[in-house]
Amino acid sequence: MTSPDPAPSVGSAERTPFPGEFDAYGLTHPGKVRESNQDHFLVSSLRKRMEIHFSSLPNAGQWAPADERLAYLAMVADGVGSGRKGEEASRTAIEAIAQYVAQSMRCYYDVDSSDEGVFLDALHEAAMRCHASVVQKAEEDPSRAGMATTLTLWLGVWPQAYFLQVGDSRCYLFRDGVLTQITRDQTMAQELVDQGVLTRADADNSRWAHVLSSAIGGSESVPVVTRIDQAWKHVGLLCSDGLTKHVSDERIRERLSSMESAKQVCQDLLQDALDGGGSDNITVVVGRLRPGGRGSA
What we know:
It contains 8 helices and 12 strands. It is an alpha+beta fold. It has a single domain (19-289), classed as Phosphatase 2c, domain 1. Strands 2, 3, 4, 5, 6, 7 and 10 form a 7-stranded antiparallel β-sheet that branches. A 5-stranded antiparallel β-sheet has the order 1-12-11-8-9. A hairpin with a 2-residue loop joins strand 6 and strand 7. Helix 1 crosses helix 3 (116-140). The longest helix is centred in the middle third of the chain and has 25 residues, at 116-140. The protein starts with 21 loop residues before the first strand and ends in an 8-residue tail after the last strand. Mean pLDDT is 86; it is low at 1-13.
């Protein structure tokens, strides 16, 4: 356990967090209606190699830990396609990104974290390689035609965080009591809202609400990478739309404002989604920094 230093103020970059000060957890559930779970997720540490903390992937432990912690990586992917195609697409996406990051660890380890362009370019390249992997699998086997997936990624390289978005899985940031959706849904409904054709309320209830305009493996894939500054009191949440179909932003805010641990809030939000109907696969990943705390990752 680390010594209990005074908590840095919000926005402070006075010191890099210690390993035990990262509290993170992730879980996935098929929901009440779907026979299979097409979601996958991963939460990991980045050193010179990758250390897996939580994942739905089989054999995820193949990326062994090294001796120095560098950053944190979290991903959620929600597969598209009937049968096992969606599950395979989301699994392929997570594995492809994890392998790319593990193989290019030297880039993340050596570069100055203030060199924003390096991380933006690396994440965009990772997404495009991931897209190519899913497309190739679909082309090799006609039974995989139409397989695709969302991909939402958070890379924390203190004191910055980088976000990669393809599709409509989401990343939220909770800070100073306010919940903000960091990512933009890449759906036809959102496109119509942006064009002024639909109101936000109409879009949420339209048939276009969950029709993707961009997806890994889809006819169009448009990765969007952004950056924000991290702070000690921030809480990040990644989720598939199985959560947000049944749990409002206000309820998410309430849960995060009273959270005792990342594991506890993930379990509470999952139960909220199940109580709300559980009509889709549900995946939730939560992470935060706790000065002097004993983290779960």
